[in-house]
Structure formats: structure tokens, C-alpha cells
Amino acid sequence: MSGSSSQEAPIATPTPPTPVTIHPDTPTPHFDVDEMRRIFEAEQRRDDEQLNALLAEFDTLMRDFDVWSHAYISRRAIEDQMELGNMAQVLAKEEERNRIFMRSIVSAVEAYRQNKIDVSPSPTQD
């Protein structure tokens, strides 16, 4: 009555890894660390040379007055053009307001001419 059963669950055994077949005629792949380092260093030198060339070109441009004066003039021209564009927009809005105001004045004058507007003094009660 101890509850011990003769049909206990079998203990799972790990599955062995699948064996890799190595053929004697095929070289085993491996990493040549020294060769990888040489390739990396060569690419790093090439990148450094390109960076130094770009920095030298930039330094040359930094010292060139014509480049700076052209850049300054171009920037000022762009800023002036933007400012003129903004001023033109403000002026267009103001002109539209003036047109609307003038239309209302013309309408009032026309109405007055046609006696549609009573401008006589209102009678006061004594």
C-alpha cells in the first residue's frame, strides 16, 4: 500500500548530437585570425586615408576666401529672397483688406446716392 508502482515513467535520456561526417578530401573550415586582422587593418588604413583626404580638402576650403564669400553672398541672397517673399505675402493680405474696405465705401456711397440711407437727423421727442 505504499503507492509504489512498478510502471514508473521512464527517465528521458538526452539525444546524442548528430555526428558530422568529415571527408578527408575536404578541408575543415576554420578562421585564420591573423589573416582577418590583416584585412581589418588594411581596410582601416584605407578608411583613415580617405578621411584624411576629406579633412585636408575641407581645411583647404576653409582657408579659401572666395568659397566663404560666395557662401555668405548665397546665404544672404536666400535670406533676402525669403524676407521679400514674406513681405509680399503681408502686402497681398493688406491689399486684399484695402480692396474689401474700398468696396464697402463704394457700396455706402452708392446707397447714399440712391437715397437708401437715411442721413436725416432723427426726430427728438420733447
Descriptive account of the structure:
With 126 residues, the protein is mainly α. Among the domains are: 34-63; 65-115. Helix content is 63%, strand content 0%. The chain contains 2 helices and no strands. The protein has helices spanning 33-63, 65-113. The longest helix is centred in the C-terminal third of the chain and has 49 residues, at 65-113. It is elongated and about 125 Å long. The N and C termini lie far apart (126 Å). The model has no long low-confidence stretch (mean pLDDT 81). This is BQ2448_5449 protein. It comes from Microbotryum intermedium. Residues 1-31 are annotated as: Disordered.
- Total helices: the number is 2
Q: Low-confidence spans: pLDDT under 50, at least 5 residues?
A: none
What is the average per-residue confidence, as pLDDT, rounded to a whole number?
81
| Order of SSEs | HH
**Helix-and-strand structural type:** mainly alpha
* Percentage of residues assigned to helices: 55-70%
The quaternary state of the protein chains shown equals single chain
How many strands? 0
Could you tell me the strand content as a percent range? under 5%
Radius of gyration: 46 Å
- Sum up the overall morphology in one term: elongated
Largest sheet entry: none
